[in-house]
Amino acid sequence: MDDLIEIRAVVESAFNGINLQKKTTLKPNPDAVKIYAYIAVKYTKLNRATIGAYINRTHSTITVAIQKFHDLYEVDDQFRISADYCIKKSAIILNLKTATYKQRIDIIFSRLSNAQKKELYVKAIEMIA
Residues 82-104: pLDDT tens digits? Predict the structure, then answer.
């Protein structure tokens, strides 16, 4: 399940912090769902029902999203750029053998509020001391 959290964080940050759990047909949400579905199926061993449930979708929605991912990837340059970015970033984060802790922390850190960043910094200073 942690993998889905990280994949979702990558995709949402690539699309300016959209919320994948929100059901909407307004762009860029549908494209982000397609990319999330493709990456989640490719890089995790979870079934499509679990992957879909995490973002408030059904297994059939995930299946259709993956089919449409392939269709769009072939013809839409902007979609391909966004998809490649998310795929590469997710691959780095999810591959524990090659990903550094700094790369993984940078993704999570970018999602925190300023108050959370300050609190984390204070705790890190205490741990070092």
Answer: 999 999 888 877 775 555 666 66
- Rounded Cα distance between 2 and 8, Å, is 10
Helix H or strand E encompassing 70: helix 59-75
Q: Hey, how many other C-beta atoms are within 10 angstroms of the C-beta on 2?
A: 8
Question: What are the E-state strand segments in 5-88?
Answer: none
**Centroid of chain to Cα 95:** 14
Residue 37, token pair as written in the block = 């579905």
Backbone φ and ψ of 53, nearest 5°? -60, -35
Pick from 72, 33, 105: which is nearest to 41 by CA? Answer: 33
Helix (H) or strand (E) holding 124, with range, is: helix 114-128
